[in-house]
Batch of 2 targets.
Target 1
Amino acid sequence: MARSGAEPIRRAAIVKATIQEIGRAGSLDVTVAQIAARAGVSAALAHHYFGSKEAIFVAAFRHVLIVYGAEVRGALALASTPRERLEAVVRASFSPSSFRRDTISAWLNFYVLAQTMPEARRLLSIYHRRLRSNLCHALRPLVGARAGRVADGIGALIDGVYLRQALSPAAPDRAAATALVLDHVSREIDA
Amino acid sequence: MARSGAEPIRRAAIVKATIQEIGRAGSLDVTVAQIAARAGVSAALAHHYFGSKEAIFVAAFRHVLIVYGAEVRGALALASTPRERLEAVVRASFSPSSFRRDTISAWLNFYVLAQTMPEARRLLSIYHRRLRSNLCHALRPLVGARAGRVADGIGALIDGVYLRQALSPAAPDRAAATALVLDHVSREIDA
DNA sequence: AATGATTGATTGATGCGTCAATCAAGAACC
DNA sequence: GGTTCTTGATTGACGCATCAATCAATCATT
């Protein structure tokens, strides 16, 4: 079965399998063989398309960021007031496509990966800057010069909720997570 | 007996070396040989005392929790009002003995370990329960029934600050971290 | 036939855990 | 006070398993 144009399908399957496998294992201790098996291909093919295990991880990470970025952009497009923009960013952070068991576990492990792999760190830094920029933009009209500090608090809180969800045996509760962060936001801007 | 009483010294050295080595590597991908070398002993001796690599990790984790627990207890002993107790818990979380580069990195990696190792998960759950209990006890007189939710927010924020510090190339800034969390606390209880 | 897709087999490296052997500091005994 | 016995401390070497990466061969499509 050497269908022409299989490459993008295979790549996508391998990326998806990587996230699922990291989620299942709860760590980066997954073999290329396991990833490939879940994607329905051989380990050799994974190497053929990505070149190395590191590259597979980076591609998976990038995919998570792309999905999240799209979610944020979509939500922001519907917001008109600063307050709505704030809500949009927070809600996007806990959207069904991102706040999922395997993706949450992958996030946590990408934080670890970022400590070792410059490319992973770079990607994570980009995410941080984007988030901070989005939050600051929405916060400036509401809290003025405090925007920077408030954005840092919101960012840390979102990350913390993710971290704790990774440990919890319970299924992710989007509503509760969103409410917790939005409550914090309210208190920061209403005072 | 040869060099009577070497065991506790060796155990402590190996535990300390484990934390440092995890901090250096930024991941759990450290070999027993590396840990042992840093501790100034052979890999075989580490196995002799701990039995397995997993057990070494657990001992290191337990040590981090013990140090942190002592810090909290010490700070709480000096506090008399609920407000002071809150501050004590937060300040202890960012005390110099816990909010250090290698320990922060170890924390992050223990979160990952907890996803795989039941014993690590158990220890982390104990820490979470203790923190929540301490916070709730101090919060109840201040915010009544909201104590539980407020404690969850503070806990997530502390974890988030740790997570972000793990990624930051800058040296840990205790003052800034403490201020950020205490500011959040103020807004939660003053409203 | 040519080209891309795909894989099984292989390899080289790495690391955990084990084991037999050695070392050194006391204890027991004369 | 010296000799021998005992026992914990300590290690080097190695077996065994695992895994990333490579390669040559096969298969399907055009």
Target 2
Amino acid sequence: MSQKLEQLSKNQQIVLNLIEKAKGPLKAYSILYNVQKKGIKAPLQVYRALEKLIKIGKIHKIESKNAFIACNNSECEISNATAFSICDNCEHVKEIKNAKLSKYLSNFHDNSGMKFKKYNLEFFGLCKNCKLKQ
Amino acid sequence: MSQKLEQLSKNQQIVLNLIEKAKGPLKAYSILYNVQKKGIKAPLQVYRALEKLIKIGKIHKIESKNAFIACNNSECEISNATAFSICDNCEHVKEIKNAKLSKYLSNFHDNSGMKFKKYNLEFFGLCKNCKLKQ
DNA sequence: TTATAAAATGTTATATTATAACAAACGTTA
DNA sequence: TAACGTTTGTTATAATATAACATTTTATAA
């Protein structure tokens, strides 16, 4: 039964495979072009797969880039606590795994006492490589 | 001279006025419809104003909603450290002012030692009102 | 004050991102 | 097998954002 829950449909698997073997985040229409040989023909097919993959935590959306990246963080299986570093120069994106950070943010509550079920954090700067080249 | 720097152009002022008097974030095309009586006719005129207003920190973009909100935080004048709470139910958005949080995030560096010039954090949950109604 | 550079404007067209609506097939479970 | 939820396929369209180019306004400084 638990195996069923992890069973991906055909389109979902195709899209996930592509995203997982990519070096960085992929955009929806770039995904579409790359899976057309596999029989996926329309944007909706891609978006529906993405929606499901996000929901189950296999991928994340990088909101500032409208792009999708595979989850590499075993701690965020339910996809409710995500943090990324994004290079302003080369656009390299990396998911941040940091227990302190995620603990800090998961426990954060604002002045009104509102607590949160989910957060997404995007950091911007220059990655090591790009900093050296400056 | 410093006054010149803060001087907004006509279109920028029109767009900013609208966003500032709004109760929540506005979408670009909703802004467009609402400023057409003021003579702004095309999306680009809106997007250009938005771009400038973001750059100088007068407004922020809520990335997960593709919407724009006035800055209410004197501490983020350069718009490089933003945090928001977003209600999943009523979509109410509020900028979070919290010195500890911003200090924590501004000083954060990842495992590789990469430091960041900018971050954007979006929290999701139920606001007080919506929590009560459940 | 004039030239010149930088910023802003106006405009048309188009690119990019995402969803609506509907019909059909599939997989699971009662 | 009947019923349900999920996934698929498909066409059309909505929503978001930028390219390219010509012109005008504003700031700077020679």
